[in-house]
Amino acid sequence: MTEVDVALPGRSYPNGAHLAEVEIDPETGAVAVVRYTVADDFGVLMNPLLVEGQVQGGVAQGLGQALMEQTLFDAAGQLLTGSFMDYALPRAADVPPVAFHPVPVPSTANPLGMKGCGEAGTVGALGALANAVQDALWPAGVRHVEMPCTPARVWAWLRDASRAAA
Predict the structure, then answer these.
(1) Which residue from 6, 51, 63, 131 lies 20 to 30 Å from 141 (Cα-Cα)?
(2) Does 2 map to a domain?
(3) Exactly one of 21, 69, 119, 146 is catalytic; which is it?
C-alpha cells in the first residue's frame, strides 16, 4: 500500500438546519418532541446510512441535554445526580423519528469532497429544541428559557408568567 501526503488548501465546513416541533402539557410542564427534521450538508457521503445513524444518535443526545439531563450538587458540593437512578437520559419513547435530508454539496477543500459530520446532530438539537420550547411557551407569557427544559422548570416558568400577568 502506497502512502500519499496531500496538502489541503483549506478546511471544509459542514452546515445544516434543525427543526423541532414540541407539545407541552401545561399541567405538568412535560415536553414531548412530536416531530424533528434535519437538513445537513456534509459534502460527499461515503456511507449515507452510517451518517444518518450518526445524526439520529446526535439528535437523541442533544434532546437529553436540552430537555432532561441535569447535574445537581448540594450546598456542600456533593454530586446529587451521580448515577442513572437520578440522572435522566432519553429513552427510545422520548425521541421521535428523525427526518434526515442530506443536501450534499462537495467540499472544494479536499479531493474526496467530504465534510465532517461529527457532533452535528447534537449541536443542532440544542438550539432547535430550546427554541421550540420557547416558541411553545411564548403565548403564555414566558420570555426566557434555559436548558435543560425539565418538566419542573417549564411548569415553574408557566406559573411565574401566569402570576406576572395577573
Answers:
(1) 63
(2) no
(3) 119
- Looking at the domain assignment, is residue 8 inside a domain? no
Beta pairing, strands 15-24 & 31-41: antiparallel
Give the Cα separation of 144 and 166 in Å (integer): 18
pTM for the whole structure:
0.89
Full residue range of the structural domain in which residue 49 is found: 15-165
Q: Which of 68, 94, 67 is nearest to 81 (CA)?
A: 68
Q: Domain for residue 130, yes or no? A: yes
Query: H/E element holding 134?
Result: helix 120-137
Residue pLDDT tens, the chain, 166 long: 788 887 777 888 899 999 999 999 999 999 999 999 999 999 999 999 999 999 999 999 999 999 999 888 999 999 998 888 888 889 999 999 999 999 999 999 988 999 999 899 999 999 999 999 999 999 999 999 999 999 999 999 999 999 999 8
- Residue pair 113/44 in contact by the 8 Å Cβ criterion: yes
